[in-house]
Structure formats: C-alpha cells, structure tokens
Amino acid sequence: MKKLCLLLLLVGASLTASAIAQGVSAATVPTTDGLACSRFDWFADANTAKAGIRVPITIAGKQYSYQLDTGADVVIAYGSGERSGWVKKADFTLAKQIEFAGATLPSIPIFRMENVSATDVQGTVGLDLLVGRTFVIDFPKKRVCLLNRADMPDALSRAAEWVPAEIRNGKLFIDDVQLNGSKIDVIYDTGTSPDQIATDFSLWGKATGMQLNSPGVTHKVAQTWGENVEYLTAPTTGSLEIGKQVYAHALLTSAPSRPTSFHDNIFGASGALGNALFFDSIVILDLGSHPYFGVVTPVKAKN
Q1: Residue finishing a domain among 150, 178, 199
Q2: pTM (2 decimals)?
Q3: For residue 17, what pLDDT is reported?
Q4: What DSSP line would sit under the chain, residue for residue?
Q5: Span 232-286, pLDDT tens digits
Q6: Which of 116, 150, 184 is the last residue of a domain?
C-alpha cells in the first residue's frame, strides 16, 4: 500500500512538473499570437517571389494595398484622381480614419505621387507612420503589428537581440553593424526586400573580393522607380554582424551603374539591410525617443 501511494505521488509530481513546465514555456515563447496585427503578402517581380511586402491599409473607410518601405520617410499615395474624405493641405494631404497593422489612427499626412502607377500597389507606408510606436514584422507568420510601446509582450522583448538605432534625416540607421570586421553605417530598408544587404559598389568589391565579371557573381536586372538597373550579388568573404547576431558570408548586392547611390542619396550611408536577411525571423522596431532594432531568431523562437 505504501509503495502504491509513493508511486502515485511520484506520478502526480511528475505530471504537475510537466504541466508547470509547459505552462511556463507557453507563456514565454516569443510569438505574435494574440497581438492585434494584420497579414501581409509578398508581391513578385521577374527575379523573385519576394520583391516587396504588400500591406493592407484602410483610409477613410476604403482599403488599399501599399508597399511597406521603411526606407521611405513618409506615407505616399500613387496615382491621380480624387480620394473621398482626403483633404488637401498646403504641404500634404490629410487623411482620416486610418487602420493599419492592428492599430487605429485618427489622421495622418499623406504625400501624393500622381505620376506613379497604382497597378500593383497603391502607395507606400513609410517610416513616419511607425515613429513613436513599436512595429513588429513577423516574417514566418506574415504579420505586421503596430503597437503602443507599453503593449510590447515581455516574451518578444526578452528574446530579441537588440542594437541601438537612430532616426536621422528620415531614415532608420542601425548602430553596431560590422561587415568583415569593419563598422558600417546602414539603414534598415524593407523596400530592399530581396537583398540581405545592399551597399555602394566600392564596399561591395572590398567585402566580396569580387569584380564585375568574377565567377560566382550573380547578375540580375530589376526596375527601380521605372528604370532598369543591373545588380550584382556575391557572398562576403567574412561575416555581417548586427550586435551579437552573426551572418556568415552574407549575400551582398550592389548596382555598378550607381556606384555611390547610398552615400549620395541617403546622407552618407554605406548601404541598407534588406528583408532577405530576416525571412525566418521576427524584426522589431522600437521607435521611441531612443530607438532600438531587435531581431528574434528562429532558435530563440523555439526555446
């Protein structure tokens, strides 16, 4: 009888410990489940099925599909024509009743680009809409979530590897980024979707050890604002490091016909981190008065 009671106690203790462990695990696994989010989808081009992120946004009761582009500093609407409920102001267009990524906003400024086609997407969601909040991009689950900063789940925050960031001249610069052991000044640009990292041409040659026609270099032609541009891609000889995150032999892309594009057009930047580096991860932009850039890797998400 005593042996039976002891056995039952041991079994009960084992089950209780298992249940507690499962409960703790479920509570601490980093996930966007339960957050107010919206789903995104990818749009394709001639080179890749993941050319850009298309997100739904509702403006004055009407839903549109915009590209998510953190390399843009403002929200942009494409195409001409009237928009019901939009009000033209001196420097921008006022749009009201905004629903985006699970959040509701009373109004935002929008800038019009009437000469750009609205066939695939009707506009761009730029950085301006995200500033002052926490923005989460869950690539595996194809979700975007715009949160009040205080509503960020602890499990996600603790699982992320964080590095300081800076909003400078309307661009999100990421600190503590090194390429082959040397610090570089880069932005995070979701508009650079199919690339892991894109840089100016001289840095590309130095970091890859390649030239224009070297074996192992991938060539592609893609449209950039209506212009066909040739891009080269090759692996770095070393690693790309973002804080403690190490990406060995990251794929580096550049446009030889625009050798100093980043330096000249993005306030001296060396390049841009693109989406392809994070296809298996969750990216978190904490855009308060002291911005931070966070990445939850697949390994962290499983623990």
Answers
A1: 150
A2: 0.88
A3: 36
A4: -HHHHHHHHHHHHHHHHHHHHHHHHHHHS---TTS--EE-EEE--SS-S-SEEEEEEEETTEEEEEEE-TTSSS-EEES-S--TT-EE-SSSEEEEEEEETTEEEEEEEEEEETTS--SS-SEEE-GGGTTTSEEEEETTTTEEEEE-GGG--HHHHHHSEEEEEEEETTEEEESSEEETTEE--EEE-TTSTT-SEEE-HHHHHHHH---TT-TT-EEEEEEETTEEEEEEEEE-SSEEEETTEEEET-EEEE-TTSTTHHHHHTTT--EEE-GGGGTTSEEEEE-SSS-EEEEE-HHHHH-
A5: 999 999 999 999 999 999 999 999 999 999 999 998 999 999 999 999 999 999 9
A6: 150
